[in-house]
From TrEMBL:
<feature type="domain" description="ABM">
    <location>
        <begin position="2"/>
        <end position="88"/>
    </location>
</feature>
<protein>
    <submittedName>
        <fullName>Quinol monooxygenase</fullName>
        <ecNumber>1.-.-.-</ecNumber>
    </submittedName>
</protein>
<keyword id="KW-0560">Oxidoreductase</keyword>
<dbReference type="Pfam" id="PF03992">
    <property type="entry name" value="ABM"/>
</dbReference>
<dbReference type="GO" id="GO:0004497">
    <property type="term" value="F:monooxygenase activity"/>
</dbReference>
<keyword id="KW-0503">Monooxygenase</keyword>
<dbReference type="InterPro" id="IPR011008">
    <property type="entry name" value="Dimeric_a/b-barrel"/>
</dbReference>
<dbReference type="InterPro" id="IPR007138">
    <property type="entry name" value="ABM_dom"/>
</dbReference>
Length: 104
């Protein structure tokens, strides 16, 4: 399992349009365990995206689908900045059942 936390800064005034493109196809991506996009409460131009995948190959494959490729092409002019804040990898350690938020 692998996860990503990304900060996307929209060009001024385009966050809503960019957010609509960022979530395009999210509900139908094979291998996607969770995909959450939200606006930043302190910056009207920032979107935070948290995503969890069964593996890196699934995430990379999603970027090559026709629907997502088209959304990326449309979104590119609306993006002022993109930062990959964190890459989260599953560790094989014993975790108490109460601490598990997502199970694959």
């Amino acid at each position: 399992m692998i996860g990503f936390i990304n900060k996307i800064t929209a060009t001024p005034g385009s966050r809503a349009a960019l957010l609509a493109l960022v979530v395009t196809g999210a509900e139908d991506m094979p291998g996607c365990i969770a995909y959450i996009a939200a606006g930043d409460g302190s910056d009207p131009d920032v979107i935070w995206v948290s995503e969890v995948w069964v593996d890196k190959a699934s995430q990379e494959a999603s970027l090559r689908t026709e629907l997502v490729s088209r959304a990326i092409e449309e979104a590119t002019p609306l993006i002022a900045g993109f930062e990959n804040i964190a890459v989260l990898e599953h560790l094989d350690v014993a975790v108490p059942p109460a601490a598990r938020l997502v199970q694959s």
